[in-house]
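Hey, I was hoping to borrow your eyes for a little while. No rush at all, and the record is pasted right below:
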Amino acid sequence: MLKRHQFLLVLATACALSACSLGRTPLPDNAYLESLGIRARQASDLAAISELQRWSQQHLVTAQRELGLSLARTEDKYPDAVFWLLEAARQGDAEAQFQIAEAYFHARLGLQKQSVQAYRWYQAAAAQNDHKAALMLARMAKYGDGTVASTVTSLKWLQRAAELGNAQAMFLLSNAYEHGEGVNADPALAREWLEKAADGEYPPAVHQLALLLETDQKPEERERARLLRKEATDERHLRW
Protein backbone atom coordinates (compact mmCIF):
# COMPACT_ATOMS: atom_id res chain seq x y z
CA MET A 1 0.00 0.00 0.00
CA LEU A 2 1.28 3.45 -0.87
CA LYS A 3 2.24 5.70 2.02
CA ARG A 4 0.35 8.98 2.25
CA HIS A 5 3.18 11.18 0.92
CA GLN A 6 3.76 8.76 -1.96
CA PHE A 7 0.06 8.86 -2.80
CA LEU A 8 0.05 12.66 -2.83
CA LEU A 9 3.08 12.73 -5.11
CA VAL A 10 1.44 10.33 -7.56
CA LEU A 11 -1.78 12.38 -7.45
CA ALA A 12 0.08 15.64 -8.12
CA THR A 13 1.95 14.08 -11.04
CA ALA A 14 -1.28 12.76 -12.50
CA CYS A 15 -2.93 16.16 -12.22
CA ALA A 16 0.03 17.84 -13.92
CA LEU A 17 -0.03 15.31 -16.76
CA SER A 18 -3.77 15.78 -17.10
CA ALA A 19 -3.32 19.56 -17.40
CA CYS A 20 -0.68 19.10 -20.06
CA SER A 21 -2.85 16.67 -22.01
CA LEU A 22 -5.71 19.16 -21.94
CA GLY A 23 -3.42 21.86 -23.30
CA ARG A 24 -4.02 24.28 -20.46
CA THR A 25 -2.17 27.56 -20.73
CA PRO A 26 0.40 28.08 -17.96
CA LEU A 27 -0.29 30.97 -15.61
CA PRO A 28 1.35 34.27 -16.65
CA ASP A 29 3.80 36.03 -14.36
CA ASN A 30 3.18 39.47 -12.85
CA ALA A 31 5.48 41.23 -15.31
CA TYR A 32 3.42 39.97 -18.23
CA LEU A 33 0.14 40.98 -16.60
CA GLU A 34 1.50 44.45 -15.83
CA SER A 35 2.60 44.80 -19.46
CA LEU A 36 -0.98 43.99 -20.47
CA GLY A 37 -2.13 46.75 -18.15
CA ILE A 38 0.23 49.25 -19.76
CA ARG A 39 -1.04 48.31 -23.20
CA ALA A 40 -4.65 48.57 -22.07
CA ARG A 41 -4.17 52.03 -20.59
CA GLN A 42 -1.75 53.63 -23.02
CA ALA A 43 -3.01 52.18 -26.28
CA SER A 44 -6.63 51.35 -25.37
CA ASP A 45 -5.77 47.80 -26.43
CA LEU A 46 -9.03 45.84 -26.34
CA ALA A 47 -7.22 42.53 -26.72
CA ALA A 48 -5.13 43.32 -23.64
CA ILE A 49 -8.27 44.19 -21.67
CA SER A 50 -9.92 40.97 -22.80
CA GLU A 51 -6.94 38.93 -21.66
CA LEU A 52 -6.84 40.73 -18.32
CA GLN A 53 -10.52 39.90 -17.88
CA ARG A 54 -9.80 36.23 -18.53
CA TRP A 55 -7.02 36.07 -15.96
CA SER A 56 -8.98 38.16 -13.47
CA GLN A 57 -11.78 35.60 -13.55
CA GLN A 58 -9.17 33.03 -12.56
CA HIS A 59 -8.44 35.08 -9.42
CA LEU A 60 -4.99 36.34 -10.41
CA VAL A 61 -4.61 39.39 -8.18
CA THR A 62 -2.25 41.32 -10.46
CA ALA A 63 -4.64 40.87 -13.38
CA GLN A 64 -7.52 42.11 -11.24
CA ARG A 65 -5.59 45.22 -10.22
CA GLU A 66 -4.43 45.98 -13.76
CA LEU A 67 -7.94 45.43 -15.13
CA GLY A 68 -9.41 47.73 -12.48
CA LEU A 69 -6.89 50.46 -13.26
CA SER A 70 -7.56 50.11 -16.99
CA LEU A 71 -11.34 50.25 -16.66
CA ALA A 72 -11.04 53.26 -14.35
CA ARG A 73 -10.12 55.38 -17.36
CA THR A 74 -13.68 55.17 -18.75
CA GLU A 75 -16.59 56.65 -16.80
CA ASP A 76 -19.18 54.05 -17.81
CA LYS A 77 -16.78 51.32 -16.62
CA TYR A 78 -16.39 52.76 -13.11
CA PRO A 79 -18.55 50.07 -11.42
CA ASP A 80 -16.46 47.31 -12.99
CA ALA A 81 -13.25 49.14 -12.09
CA VAL A 82 -14.31 49.35 -8.45
CA PHE A 83 -15.33 45.68 -8.45
CA TRP A 84 -11.95 44.44 -9.70
CA LEU A 85 -9.90 46.84 -7.58
CA LEU A 86 -11.79 45.67 -4.50
CA GLU A 87 -11.20 42.05 -5.48
CA ALA A 88 -7.47 42.71 -5.73
CA ALA A 89 -7.44 44.79 -2.54
CA ARG A 90 -9.16 42.03 -0.58
CA GLN A 91 -6.50 39.61 -1.81
CA GLY A 92 -3.83 41.90 -0.36
CA ASP A 93 -2.59 43.91 -3.35
CA ALA A 94 -1.10 47.12 -1.90
CA GLU A 95 -1.57 49.26 -5.01
CA ALA A 96 -5.21 48.21 -5.34
CA GLN A 97 -5.71 48.99 -1.66
CA PHE A 98 -4.25 52.45 -2.16
CA GLN A 99 -6.35 53.13 -5.26
CA ILE A 100 -9.56 52.09 -3.51
CA ALA A 101 -8.64 54.31 -0.56
CA GLU A 102 -8.07 57.20 -2.97
CA ALA A 103 -11.44 56.57 -4.60
CA TYR A 104 -13.23 56.67 -1.24
CA PHE A 105 -11.27 59.69 0.00
CA HIS A 106 -11.63 61.82 -3.13
CA ALA A 107 -15.09 60.50 -4.18
CA ARG A 108 -13.76 59.04 -7.42
CA LEU A 109 -14.91 56.17 -9.66
CA GLY A 110 -18.53 56.95 -8.89
CA LEU A 111 -18.10 56.41 -5.14
CA GLN A 112 -19.21 58.85 -2.47
CA LYS A 113 -16.60 60.17 -0.06
CA GLN A 114 -16.29 57.72 2.83
CA SER A 115 -13.40 58.73 5.04
CA VAL A 116 -13.66 55.73 7.37
CA GLN A 117 -13.40 53.31 4.46
CA ALA A 118 -10.57 55.35 2.99
CA TYR A 119 -8.65 55.24 6.26
CA ARG A 120 -9.14 51.48 6.47
CA TRP A 121 -7.72 50.84 3.02
CA TYR A 122 -4.87 53.34 3.46
CA GLN A 123 -3.95 51.40 6.61
CA ALA A 124 -3.92 48.13 4.68
CA ALA A 125 -1.62 49.60 2.02
CA ALA A 126 0.65 51.30 4.56
CA ALA A 127 1.05 47.99 6.39
CA GLN A 128 2.70 46.81 3.16
CA ASN A 129 5.08 49.77 3.12
CA ASP A 130 3.18 52.01 0.70
CA HIS A 131 4.66 55.46 1.45
CA LYS A 132 1.80 57.35 -0.19
CA ALA A 133 -0.72 55.60 2.03
CA ALA A 134 1.33 56.32 5.15
CA LEU A 135 1.40 60.03 4.26
CA MET A 136 -2.38 60.07 3.82
CA LEU A 137 -2.83 58.40 7.20
CA ALA A 138 -0.69 61.15 8.75
CA ARG A 139 -2.88 63.80 7.14
CA MET A 140 -6.15 62.14 8.15
CA ALA A 141 -5.03 61.59 11.75
CA LYS A 142 -3.91 65.22 12.01
CA TYR A 143 -7.34 66.55 11.07
CA GLY A 144 -9.50 63.74 12.45
CA ASP A 145 -10.75 62.75 9.01
CA GLY A 146 -12.04 59.18 9.13
CA THR A 147 -10.37 58.57 12.48
CA VAL A 148 -9.85 60.21 15.86
CA ALA A 149 -7.69 63.33 15.61
CA SER A 150 -4.30 62.55 17.13
CA THR A 151 -1.03 64.43 16.76
CA VAL A 152 0.82 61.38 18.07
CA THR A 153 -0.72 59.08 15.44
CA SER A 154 -0.18 61.68 12.74
CA LEU A 155 3.52 62.01 13.58
CA LYS A 156 3.89 58.23 13.71
CA TRP A 157 2.61 57.86 10.17
CA LEU A 158 4.54 60.91 8.96
CA GLN A 159 7.74 59.39 10.33
CA ARG A 160 6.88 56.08 8.65
CA ALA A 161 6.20 57.73 5.29
CA ALA A 162 9.50 59.62 5.53
CA GLU A 163 11.40 56.45 6.38
CA LEU A 164 9.82 54.78 3.35
CA GLY A 165 11.26 57.52 1.13
CA ASN A 166 8.37 59.94 0.66
CA ALA A 167 10.02 63.34 0.06
CA GLN A 168 6.91 65.35 0.99
CA ALA A 169 6.72 63.51 4.31
CA MET A 170 10.41 64.25 4.89
CA PHE A 171 9.74 67.94 4.35
CA LEU A 172 6.73 67.99 6.70
CA LEU A 173 8.70 66.06 9.31
CA SER A 174 11.52 68.59 9.00
CA ASN A 175 9.04 71.40 9.68
CA ALA A 176 7.67 69.53 12.69
CA TYR A 177 11.14 69.25 14.21
CA GLU A 178 11.94 72.84 13.35
CA HIS A 179 8.85 74.27 15.04
CA GLY A 180 8.32 71.62 17.72
CA GLU A 181 4.93 70.57 16.37
CA GLY A 182 4.01 67.33 18.13
CA VAL A 183 7.68 66.62 18.89
CA ASN A 184 10.45 68.33 20.79
CA ALA A 185 12.11 70.94 18.60
CA ASP A 186 15.34 69.56 17.21
CA PRO A 187 17.24 71.78 14.71
CA ALA A 188 19.65 68.97 13.81
CA LEU A 189 16.87 66.54 12.88
CA ALA A 190 14.99 69.34 11.10
CA ARG A 191 18.05 70.00 8.92
CA GLU A 192 18.64 66.28 8.34
CA TRP A 193 15.12 65.69 7.05
CA LEU A 194 15.18 68.89 5.01
CA GLU A 195 18.36 67.72 3.29
CA LYS A 196 16.77 64.35 2.55
CA ALA A 197 13.62 65.97 1.19
CA ALA A 198 15.71 68.21 -1.09
CA ASP A 199 17.68 65.16 -2.25
CA GLY A 200 14.30 63.67 -3.12
CA GLU A 201 13.70 66.72 -5.35
CA TYR A 202 10.63 67.92 -3.46
CA PRO A 203 10.41 71.54 -4.72
CA PRO A 204 9.44 73.29 -1.44
CA ALA A 205 12.32 71.51 0.29
CA VAL A 206 14.79 72.53 -2.41
CA HIS A 207 13.62 76.14 -2.15
CA GLN A 208 13.76 76.19 1.65
CA LEU A 209 17.21 74.62 1.76
CA ALA A 210 18.49 77.12 -0.82
CA LEU A 211 17.21 80.02 1.31
CA LEU A 212 18.91 78.53 4.35
CA LEU A 213 22.22 78.06 2.59
CA GLU A 214 22.20 81.60 1.21
CA THR A 215 22.49 82.96 4.75
CA ASP A 216 25.52 80.80 5.50
CA GLN A 217 28.86 82.56 5.81
CA LYS A 218 30.74 79.81 4.00
CA PRO A 219 31.24 80.53 0.30
CA GLU A 220 30.85 76.84 -0.60
CA GLU A 221 27.40 76.75 1.02
CA ARG A 222 26.27 79.86 -0.85
CA GLU A 223 27.52 78.25 -4.05
CA ARG A 224 25.52 75.17 -3.20
CA ALA A 225 22.46 77.37 -2.74
CA ARG A 226 22.99 78.82 -6.22
CA LEU A 227 23.25 75.34 -7.71
CA LEU A 228 20.10 74.20 -5.93
CA ARG A 229 18.19 77.15 -7.35
CA LYS A 230 19.53 76.39 -10.82
CA GLU A 231 18.55 72.72 -10.53
CA ALA A 232 15.08 73.69 -9.36
CA THR A 233 14.66 76.08 -12.30
CA ASP A 234 15.93 73.49 -14.77
CA GLU A 235 13.55 70.90 -13.31
CA ARG A 236 10.57 73.24 -13.77
CA HIS A 237 11.53 73.85 -17.39
CA LEU A 238 11.90 70.13 -18.07
CA ARG A 239 8.49 69.37 -16.57
CA TRP A 240 6.95 72.20 -18.56
